[in-house]
């Protein structure tokens, strides 16, 4: 386990166990691995361990006797010496007939061949060495370079020596960081591992060692003079990573402002010093360049944020002014080059070109760029089609000038591409050269009627526009009649970009008939055919998916526990044993086919997956619940969604009212709605790919091009209209797997080729801004020639941006999902997992709110904002915790409602804010409070999901280590901060290497990232049980019937006399007094149900002498209770609970808020007349009391309408309830209460009767 060695390898098992014992003894004697002595002791054990393993596997060691290296294609001789196949062949060819080492003669018929057994041993030896070296590197990371103190100088000296090896011929070779003198590089490679370890500490502490490393590399001449810029870039990358790792968190405003102050001070000192390049390059100079890169990156972000017109903080303004001074006074325009490149990365080339015309940003651009008069052409990303498209485009451009459209047809004829490709070339060229002219503010530059007529001739006669719908589209391009896509002067750059993508897709769909294109073709060209379609990438009903998966295993009957969590019973569907709900711990199941109380059968959850476009507000797309990729890889999924939105936008350009009917909930401006979704798609794609703005758009054009190149299929099962969820899921999975994923695998190479075509386009290649951003030849910028040898395009180039989405894309591209399953699972739902840390905070909020309102005398009404404003001592505490709740709920809302407790749509269809009802914060088993209960439950599910994944990965079982929500603390939950913990961890595992004659390569050590995420964040956490989940129990949710039955058994009960009843009612005059009295009686009932008591003991005496509560009770309430005995408690509860509802009616408040609407049907005039007649026949108080109790205890339950049909007779329903209690129904009720009054009228009947009785008494 310590070495990562597999136990099943028996050959080396004993040796490994002995090594571990030895290592344990060494560590006991030399526990400080940071010291030279301790470090050397551990290395000695590792070397011995490795050598002994090699000796066991190879009698004479693992070294070719000719080349003296580890053998390649290993051959074994009869004497057991081993050689490379090539080496021994050369020896035999030279006439030698014996072993080159021991001179033993070889048999006459000896033929060298690769030995499978020896090859297996070589592989085993390499694996063992890898395990030992992995342990060594882990030891460095976890012990030697841990905390704030670097290891001893002797340790670092040893480590630096491990990067190189001197051969017997006095030649120096590079090798991986390892204490073993093996696996030297054939070609010199400079690696960043030791640099990364050293830079965990402050630069000042390790500068000496960094310089030592740098000097040794330079002196060894591993890198040619032509590759020095790449070498400097490697060091600068490491230094820059170290600076970013120590940056303050985003969102910490005070720290961010302090950071601006620090960088402003750095720039001021830098400018005060001699900014000219030093005579020789040193590590200090590279550190300055790294910090300048960081500073300029911060400035680029500030400028980008400022573009929409946002203001920047004062200290940030001072920082920006100092950056301006750096660019203007330093005499080094490489700073401007880097700033321009960073702005282009985030905003795109076209935006940078527009900035040059804004005086506010003149300072960014070198003087030579300002002096260039020409604007330069726009980048043409249709050049992904290469030279043949370009030739058609040039022909169209000439035709615009000279009117000769025949040359366009000639250019198409000369193409070697397929006819449909030529049609695509022609359509895209018409857009690029004709339609875009309409963007000009100068109408004189728009196509003239004469020019349009010339193009009409082309459209009508071209061989490549033979289809009528293609000709109509070509004509729309020439006349700019494109509906919502019509080109307008002054359009925003992003709007133009989206239009270009849609035109590209339109050309592909018009010319393609592949079965996989059909759904997109219908969406874009005939959306009326997709009115009931299940639109691709829309979310499924996850609960239905889970139930379907479980039902697949056999027939199941679904139930819910008392807390509404779903459970299932197999076989006949009737329970034969008891169990506990996995969600909350409540008893479920039953015995002898009889269910336990509260375990209720329910209908199988119907699949709520809806057709149409149901993503909703684009602004919610960053929430984790909107990032479900439906088991597809993220990047292909994002591309499928983007192409779907582009197709819908194409359809909406001509038929907006048709596409509008596909979108749910409805939107007013379909084009704006879809455009915002496309922008969000592009943003998420950029994060996933880690590409800049222009490369991101080019990637999409490459994908659209691939749609046009689909091979013809012989047969298909694809439903072109996507009429079911299953057909939709089949289509999107097929497209993601067969089209998107292969294109992404080769994306970098395809991008390089496409960018070469785009940047070499004669229209833009002379443009200085394009050359600055993408070129390496800076001869046009004179100031760059006098700079340091460090300053070069390679050093001042932008690196691909790190994000968790881009890491996911790297895993997809490298096909490492199965190799690193824990990391893959973590990354798939990381946006949700990061929210687990808020569980304790949300739990504390709910516990406090439950304590506050469990026995509240007032109704809980009003918005959250009002509640916060009413707080005095703890306002800030509530403000902070409630903001955490709202943020977490809004991000997980859809996931909670799809995967956990079934929450009615009326409560979860929108995000919550401070103006939402306070009821949403109060955890309940029904109503808006289900949202609070569901959120805690889902956070527990997320936590347990990761804990179980860790168990599966480590093959451990932590099921015995559990904590309940009652005892949960911050230490129990998985908790990390993305900016502070996760991204620095990933960045520290990004290693750089420079092989002689090659560019600097970056590579993420994904296995180590997985291991460190496991050990730092996930391992050692308990499973969380839902026992003790906070719940605010309504009166109707308490099991009063059981309490009453228990009290009856221990303290026989009887009804209050009419006189005592009236006395209590009159003395408790206010609503608050009634509530306080009811709370005392409920407490009293709880004690009596457990302890019993003397039925004739006075209630006040029991409160004073047994419970010692008299000091805490209002004397007015004690006086009201003075004539009551313990035998009156149940009746007293009936009277007070009814009186509470009466008082609420008097205060114009609703006593039955949240009850099913089915029981609140208004009375008819005939009903009211019958009730008045009933009231005149006798005293109705006892009947009203029983009706009220039935209302509270039976109709306030979950799913009450399933047990008590609203169409039943009210008299029969309440009468049956009284019979169960063995209470006689009054004769006057049997005789006079109308049969026409149904249970649906019960609430209005009680309220009407109470009100009428009060009015009668007041007359």
TrEMBL record:
Q: Where is this region: Disordered?
A: 610-629
Q: What is its main location?
A: cytoplasm
Question: What InterPro entries is this protein classified in?
Answer: RNF213, ZF_RZ_dom, Znf_RING, Znf_RING/FYVE/PHD, Znf_RING_CS
Task: Tell me where in this chain the RZ-type domain is found.
Answer: 538-611
Q: Please indicate which superkingdom the organism of origin belongs to.
A: Eukaryota
Q: Which UniProt keywords apply?
A: Cytoplasm, Immunity, Metal-binding, Zinc, Zinc-finger
Please give the Gene3D superfamilies that the UniProt record associates with this protein.
Answer: Zinc/RING finger domain, C3HC4 (zinc finger)
By what name is this protein known? Ring finger protein 213
In the record, biological process GO terms are: immune system process; negative regulation of non-canonical Wnt signaling pathway; sprouting angiogenesis; ubiquitin-dependent protein catabolic process
| Domain RING-type intervals | 64-103
Which regions form coiled coils?
none
**A GO-annotated cellular component:** membrane
Gene Ontology molecular function, alphabetical: ATP hydrolysis activity; ubiquitin-protein transferase activity; zinc ion binding
Q: Name one Pfam family in it.
A: zf-C3HC4_3
Species for this entry: Oreochromis aureus (Israeli tilapia)
List localization entries. Cytoplasm
